[in-house]
Structure formats: C-alpha cells, structure tokens
Design a protein that fits this description.
The protein is α+β, with helices and mostly antiparallel strands. Helices cover 26% and strands 22% of the residues. The protein has helices at residues 116-134, 171-187, 191-202, 243-263, 303-308, 317-326, 337-341; strands at residues 3-7, 12-16, 51-55, 65-69, 83-86, 89-93, 97-102, 141-148, 160-166, 206-209, 213-216, 227-231, 269-274, 291-296. The strands form 2 sheets. It has a 10-stranded antiparallel sheet with strand order 3-4-7-9-8-13-14-12-11-10, with helices on both faces. Strand 10 (206-209) and strand 11 form a beta hairpin.
Length: 344
C-alpha cells in the first residue's frame, strides 16, 4: 500500500510507493527496448494484470488499445483513504488507481507517428477510463501521462500511457484552480480562454490549430519547446468533450507529437493532462479550462532551479514556435545547431 506523506514545511505531498521499486530496472537509468519478453505485446496478456478496457473491432484478443492495472502501482483501490497524524506529520493511505494504456499492438510503433484512426482510439480510451474512474467517489483528481523515449522516465519501449487517479488534489493543480477562480470572480472571464484568443490573434506563439483545438507555446514557458494543446470551446473537465471533439483532440495530439518528433529529431518527451478536480467541475465551470501539455526533455534542472523553484529557460517561446511552424529557417532563432540536433 502506498502512502501520501505531507511535508508541513513546504505544504506539499509526496507519494511513497515501494511497489514502484520492484519494476525491472526500477532504479536504473535505462529503458528496456527488446520485444522478446515485452509484456505489452499481443499474446503476452498473461504477463500483465487482467484487461479492464479495450478498443478493437474483432474482440478482446485483437485489441487495438488495451488498458489494465499497473503491475507496480503507485496507487491501489485498497480501501478508502484515511488520515493518520503523528505530531507534526500527516499521512494518507494511497487509495487510488494506477492503470496502463497500451497505445498500439506494434512494439516498434512511436507515439508520435501513430495513424489518425489509432490516435482516435487512444483518445477515446483516455476519455472512457477518465469517465469510469470519475465514478469512484473517494477519488479527487485524475491525470493521464505519456513518457516517450529514453530519458523521459519510461522503462519500456512499447508505446503506452499511464492513468493516475488520486485521493487528493496536487498542490500545483489546486494553485492553478485558485488562480483561475480568482481571475474569473474579478473579470467574469476564463483566463485560459483569454490566452487562447490572444495567441490565435497574435500568432507569435501559435504552432497550429484545428477545428476544436489550438496548440501554442505558453508565454512564460518554463522549458524549451513546451506545448499546450487546449480546446477552443470552454470546458473545465476532460470528460466534457463531444465525440467529435475527442477525434479532434486525437488529431491535435498527433500533430503536436509529430512536430516535436520531426523538427527536434525524436527527443524524449513527457505529455500530461491538467483537468479540473473531480466533483469540483461545477464550482470551477466558468473559471477552469483543461489542457494537454507536451514537454520535450531537452534540459536538466540544476541547483538554482532546485534551490529557488524558478526555472531558467534558455530559449524564447516565440522563436521555438516559429521553428516548429516553419522549420529551421534561421539557425540563430532557436540556438543554432543545438536546435537542429534536438537538444540544448
């Protein structure tokens, strides 16, 4: 059973999940690349926990997207969370859910290069599992992540995402919600809607848009080539999408991944969801706006960042956005040969 331990000095929670250390190469800085014993490949379903959800046209055995509980979970559905206090410390039972979503049957497929129909299956599976886990009353927050490539935190090459359902709301999300709600009460407008409208009109940091989504570099990007993919229609919760919007989100995810893959020579990256906390969508309905982030792993945090919480970004978002829109027209725009080589 994992624990959520509260740090009274920083006002932050830390997950202590010893099961994660049991993963093959759990503490090693490497990724298993061979398909010989890959537990995510078709025909090896017995090597993972049972399937809880799949998408495919020819039955479970011919799945195209498959979901199951993580074999080494950070959170498990083992009772409801309870708080224990010991002097100045608090600990909460890590009662939640941690699932794996396999993006393709093909071990050698790349998350950035999946065909549009396959990405649509992936996006639909994201929403299906998000909605199913939202029904568990003691859960408070759900996020979906993808770690792609060596250096991203991935330990298996086979393309996959992970779904985390938490019994609490992370501090970063709570802070984002509070800021959005404070601005909404003052202006009557969603700050993210305002940002999207400004980026679409300005165009300097806009990378692309489709019928329902815009992809842009945040004005104060903390990391080089960080992308935000946000719905044009205001919605607080990830599950608020229509079926048509889900397909449009799939296309936007694929395009964001593809541009990072092609323009930066396939760097490792992290992608993740920021959505409204569960059962707070009503309170935050007009204020919070969900989005999807893609963050290439091009830099390493140093002592200054760890000491201050401030991140030094050595690139201008405007230059990076231009590079992804148009290609390497100007070597100086994004750091010369470093941008061409895909690292900083």
């Amino acid at each position: 059973m994992s624990e959520l331990r509260y740090n009274p000095v920083t006002d932050e929670w830390v997950v202590v999940a010893t099961a994660r250390a049991k993963r093959p190469d759990g503490f090693a800085n490497r990724m298993r690349r061979d398909a010989i014993e890959c537990p995510f490949c078709p025909g090896r379903e017995h090597m993972t926990p049972p399937t809880v959800h799949y998408l495919g046209d020819d039955g479970e055995a011919e799945w195209q997207v498959r979901v199951f509980e993580n074999k080494y979970p950070a959170f498990t559905l083992d009772g409801k969370p309870c708080v224990n206090c010991e002097e100045i410390y608090r600990v909460v039972r890590g009662s939640g859910r941690h699932e794996v979503l396999v993006l393709s049957r093909d071990h050698a497929a790349h998350a950035a290069m999946l065909a549009v129909p396959q990405m649509q299956r992936v996006a639909r599976a994201y929403v299906d599992r998000y909605r199913a886990l939202s029904e568990l009353e003691h859960l408070r927050y759900i996020t979906i992540i993808t770690n792609q490539g060596h250096g991203s935190g991935a330990t298996l090459e086979h393309p996959h995402s992970q779904i985390f359902a938490l019994p609490m709301v992370p501090k970063a999300i709570r802070r984002e919600c509070s800021n959005a709600l404070r601005r909404y009460k003052r202006t009557g407008k969603c700050i993210t809607c305002q940002v999207i409208e400004h980026e679409a009109d300005c165009g300097d940091r806009l990378v692309f848009r489709n019928e329902h989504f815009a992809c842009f570099m945040p004005y104060a990007s903390a990391f080089p080539f960080e992308l935000s993919v946000a719905p044009l229609r205001h919605m607080a919760g990830f599950a608020d999408m229509t079926d048509h919007e889900v397909d449009s989100f799939a296309a936007a995810m694929r395009e964001a991944n593809r541009r990072i893959y092609e323009k930066l020579d396939d760097p490792p990256y992290n992608a993740f969801l920021h959505s409204a906390p569960l059962r707070e969508e009503g309170r935050l309905a007009g204020a919070f706006h969900w989005d999807w982030h893609v963050r290439p792993c091009l830099t390493t945090l140093g002592g200054f960042e760890h000491a201050t919480g401030l991140v030094i970004n050595a690139s201008r978002p405007e230059d990076c956005a231009k590079f992804l829109r148009e290609g390497a027209e100007d070597e100086a725009a994004c750091g010369g040969t470093a941008a061409e080589e895909g690292h900083f």
